[in-house]
Specification:
The complex is a heterodimer of chains A (about 550) and B (about 100).
Chain A: H1 6-27, H2 33-41, E1 45-47, E2 52-57, E3 62-64, H3 65-78, E4 82-85, E5 90-93, H4 101-109, E6 127-128, H5 143-153, E7 168-171, E8 185-191, E9 197-203, E10 215-222, H6 226-240, H7 251-258, H8 260-276, H9 281-292, H10 304-312, H11 314-322, E11 324-326, E12 332-337, E13 348-350, H12 351-364, E14 368-371, E15 377-383, H13 387-396, E16 411-412, H14 427-439, H15 443-446, E17 451-454, E18 468-475, E19 478-485, E20 497-498, E21 503-504, H16 508-522, H17 530-537, H18 540-546, H19 549-555
Parallel strand pairs in A: 6-7, 7-8, 16-17, 17-18
Antiparallel strand pairs in A: 1-2, 2-5, 3-14, 4-5, 4-13, 8-9, 9-10, 11-12, 12-15, 14-15, 18-19, 19-20, 19-21
Helix pairs in contact in A: 1-2, 1-4, 3-4, 3-12, 5-9, 6-8, 7-8, 10-11, 12-13, 14-16, 16-18
Chain B: E1 7-14, E2 20-23, E3 29-30, H1 41-54, E4 58-69, E5 72-75, H2 78-83, H3 94-97
Classes of the chains: A alpha+beta (about 550), B alpha+beta (about 100).
The complex binds iron/sulfur cluster.
The site of iron/sulfur cluster has 13 residues of chain A, from loops.
Chain lengths: ~550, ~100
Amino acid sequence: MYNYTMFDKDFVANRAAQFRDQVQRRIDGSLTEDEFRPLRLMNGLYMLLHAYMLRVAIPYGTLSTAQMRALADVADRWDKGYVHFSTRQNIQFHWPHLQDVPDILEALAKVDMHAIQSSGSCIRSITSDHFAGAAEDEAEDPRPTAEFVRQWSTDHPEFAFLPRKFKVAVTGSKHDRAVTKLHDIGLTLVRNATGAAGYEVSVGGGLGRTPMIGKVLREFLPRADLLAYLDAILHVYNRIGRRDNKYKARIKITLHENGIDEIRRQVENNFKLQRARFDGSDQDIFARIEGDFEPPVFKQASIGGYEATRNDDPLFRSFTDTNLHPHKNTDYTIVTVSLKAHGATPGDASSAQMRALADIAQEWSHGELRVSHEQNIILPHVHKSDLPSVHKALRNAGLATANIGLISDLIACPGMDYCDLATARSINVAQGIATRFDELKLEHEIGHLKLKISGCINACGHHHVGHIGILGLEKRGVESYQITLGGDGTETAAIGKIIGPGFSADEILPAIERLIAAYLDLRLDASEIFLTAFRRLGPAPFKAAIYTDEVKNHAA
Amino acid sequence: MTNEATAQIITANDLLSGEVVYLSDAGKWSPEHGDAALLGNVQADARLSEVQKSDPSVVGPYLAGATQRDDAPSPIHFREVFRTKGPSNRFLGKQAHAV
Ligand code: SF4
């Protein structure tokens, strides 16, 4: 993974020291809250419902074992012994005290971590495919590009006060696991007809109040032009993006109001100017970064024990049926560790679990860990002969839940249990659904299903792109949950459609049960997943199942 | 929905710990909703702008509806009810302090 240079280390350490001074001045009264607020937000420190929240960036979801251990130490020493992995490959501490935050940032700086640009109207932490550098279906590792863009965007003086926040995602695989089409900029590594490396660039995707799928601005951008082109897009957005209305300030609205052709014209014009400023030295930096992402030296060993254990141990078999993904090296596999034990809070991990993950990665995954936007942890390089040991160690840490890609592997934002912007809770709904379908022993039968829950229209829980999405709202003074169907966050991206009136906190689980029962009834066979069945049949039969006559009368 | 006549309380988060606090009759911040001063609308607006101007010990003070119940002010909106307790998924926050 990327190794911080002395420049990076100094930069991050200086920012931590600066923030220490700012906190001190807030506490002694020299700074008002109005003056301090933008400074704390620049360092990832929010005030939520019950306490402060510190959001630490995990650029493109890559974590070393030393970093995981340092995060666990922060959780124990300055927080309440657990953390929350967010839907943007970040980590959140939900109970820090203001006076401790400088110490936390200093501890994190020692392991090359920080909270810079994890908030505010700037270019946020760059996200990527959580299987980057490992997946069999990957054409090229997206992390050097993600790191390159991270360096370019860090403290970029022109883009520190954009009309609104700006999110960039990068993928190197035709199977889009990084939701690139729902980002302000989505970069897909591609090759042109002559085999030259470059990017497909999409812009204007986004969730939130006005969900939109990104549009392709450039089908092929040569690699050497990346920064000049990004400069051009950001420059145009910074100039014409709307600052008069926060709900219309994201680039998706700029694109929608001006049209893709006009945006393309302005970007291409600006690009010519930007490009003249580049002399190719950025490509030397890119090459240096690439060197940091050399794959590990894979071991040569028999994988015989793997099949034997699968035959003997049904728990291991079930785990390996659901939680593995094919690796580039066929003797290896990618293990997804579920942070969704049935009934647990999606994305939460205790400090003990984090240390166990660090130990396991150290011993059996070439020291690498990844965080997925789906709130799970990835062991990217596990030799198949080591899987029985990995599984045993995960079981001991309470981390061997075999549910990846199933209904209980759902995404949920913190909702009103933590978030000051929430209109309803989301964690309780997630817990209810996971527990219920586990009791019914139905989730393996249901198969691949993406269920996503947000606690307000900001859509941090990605409900718009859930095959089944749930949005928590307030209706007449109580929590109300709206169901959307047919969303998809992959290369076949689609925004889910609202199926009808919302349900109360008590009614939402039975409604989901009726929906799933209808799907099981209607599908052609077990190989037709929910999303495919929905696309074939349309909303009508599902709507009929959700809103029975009894429910309709009750609602009326 | 309740039809009880409502008044306002002033609430915020403590500068250092972030804990939810309520402004009492004595002008002190208390972690207990029951200690909050119940204010009429006009009085509430005036008190709030005073606090916003001159009290650096809290973050984000605002008015929330409340009603007198069993001799103490009690929150009306479910969001404010959660703020008197803590998260519902973990036994942390005020509910844990009370034990
Ligand atoms: S979707 Fe809303 S409730 Fe959930 S984390 Fe985002 S802002 Fe908070």
